[in-house]
Write a structure and sequence with these properties.
It is built from no helices and ten strands. By secondary structure, it is an all-beta fold. The chain has one domain. It is globular, with a radius of gyration of 16 Å. The relative contact order is 0.22.
Length: 134
């Protein structure tokens, strides 16, 4: 990450290979949580390990915001993306001119600027449609 950029939250992602989300996996029952949790919400085990989630998943649902929010001017899209590891991730969706969102379409994570704050670029993850990825 460049000097003028800060992550929206430490430990959510790294920029390797275009961006990867980092999750926690319970060493006892194998349940995966994103974002990482300090203990397993399933079995209450405290022994967790970091795992890298798949870059691609399927769009479960989405919504188009038409009212301004703190950081996103309208219209903006947010959605839920199901990843192969059994994790459902809530994230901003990249606006596209040539592709319309469809439930079940293939999406890919990438790291991008979410907004600017005090002269710093706040970096986070978004999902974008995979062209020809249905």
């Amino acid at each position: 990450m460049s000097e003028d950029a800060v992550p929206v939250k430490e430990g959510l992602f790294d920029e390797t290979g275009g961006g990867r989300l980092l999750a926690g996996k319970c060493k006892a029952c194998g349940r995966i949580f994103f974002p990482k949790a300090p203990f397993c919400f399933e079995c209450l085990e405290k022994d967790m390990e970091e795992v890298v989630l798949s870059r691609r998943g399927k769009l479960y649902s989405y919504s188009i915001g038409r009212m301004a929010s703190t950081h996103f001017p309208p219209p903006y899209a947010v959605g839920l993306v199901d990843l192969p590891e059994g994790v459902r991730v809530f994230a901003p969706l990249m606006s596209t001119v040539d592709l319309t969102y469809r439930i079940g379409m293939e999406m890919e994570v990438y790291i991008d600027e979410l907004w600017k704050d005090d002269g710093k670029r706040v970096m986070g993850y978004k999902f974008k449609p995979v062209k020809g990825g249905d």
